[in-house]
Amino acid sequence: MTDFSQTRAAFDLPEGVIYLDGNSLGPLPRSAAERVARMMTQEWGRLLIRGWNEAGWYVQPRRVGDRIAPLIGAEPGSVVMGDTLSVKVFQALSAAVEMRPERRVILSDSGNFPSDLYVAQELVAALDRGADRGVDRGVDREPDLGLELRIVAPEEVEAAIDDSIAVTLLTEVDYRTGRLHDMAALTARAHAAGALTIWDLAHSAGALPVRLAEAGADFAVGCTYKYLNGGPGAPAFIYVDPRHADAARPALAGWMGHAAPFAFDPHWTPASGIERMRVGTPPVLALTALEAALDIWEGVSLDALRQESIRLSEAFIAAVAARLPGLPLASPREPERRGSQVSFRHPDAYAIVQALIARGVIGDFRAPDIMRFGFTPLYLTLVETEKAADLLADVVLTEAWNQPEYRIRAQVT
User: Fold this and answer.
1) Which residues are catalytically annotated?
2) In a 3-state reduction of DSSP, which class is residue 328?
3) 258 and 308 inside one domain
4) Does the pTM of the predicted model rise above 0.85?
5) What cofactor requirement does the entry state (predicted)?
6) Is 114 known to sit in a ligand binding site?
7) Would residue 45 count as lying in a domain?
8) Is 83 annotated to bind ligand?
9) Are residues 21 and 170 in the same domain?
């Protein structure tokens, strides 16, 4: 039985704050500051460059990846850390496209996170430019050599998977509404059509049970600063199914992904397995903070986490509906169809969220009209959840949000 009062005690939460934004940035683990300080003084400070060997900095990306693997249902040795999520999306997408050279279409959906779509758009454009240069130089090629990014509505993804698809690029949990894709079903459909799959787990890892190996997913990527609580800018991870690990070749290669990085060979030879997905020098400070955060997950049942997340989110929806029956729910009503967040729509959503924050309830806003609230049982209680619903209702009913200071848009919303 997972003791969520024990995990709550492991976080340094500000007094009087109800934190419903762990889906955007997790709070500070109490042990992280001391762990990073010790790394800086005892490892960096005393060992200097010897820390790469003696303190294990060089192998840290694999070591941390192996700790994340159980949280996403991945095989040991199939996950490595480093860089940002967009970099990992690019690596996975470029590798998958190369593995299906006879296919022309990348399939995604309109609920995907924009950064993933940007990566796909620019990869398509770069390959098109390269193909055009080939024509300019008199190189023979088929006229349809270029890739296409095909974007459909989330509910149309399954029907859109056919034998033209090279790879599907999908975020399991919609960042705005929390709508949850059926990973197992869509992966099976893609494989039946001969396509590969890439799953973005930014809003899944640490929020609900993920079963990559069971579903047969080909690639997956994710960040660690949301539900995994690794801190702002914490490094991303990438998963490659072991059956692809020695075939996948990312277009973005770096010296840490070389088979012999310290041979300084001018020609890239990929390392074996998941190591080839490393790029540059790993962010040791950030990985150290993440390791402290991952300690909290020891002994946590992901099934129990999911059950408690549903209990909290259902209580929040019911409480809001009782006080604000006309407030549109943007998330799926059935809990099994959403992740660990709940979103509502309101034309003045930004101002309402700012007024709530002023009252100690931290959620966030997503354009154009979404108020988004994350439910993280590691540190959130039912009492806090119900109080947050009451304060939301009070802000809306009294129009407390209708103040000039709440309408001023900050750079980060």
Assistant:
1) 113, 200, 225-226, 372
2) coil
3) no
4) yes
5) pyridoxal 5'-phosphate
6) yes
7) no
8) no
9) no
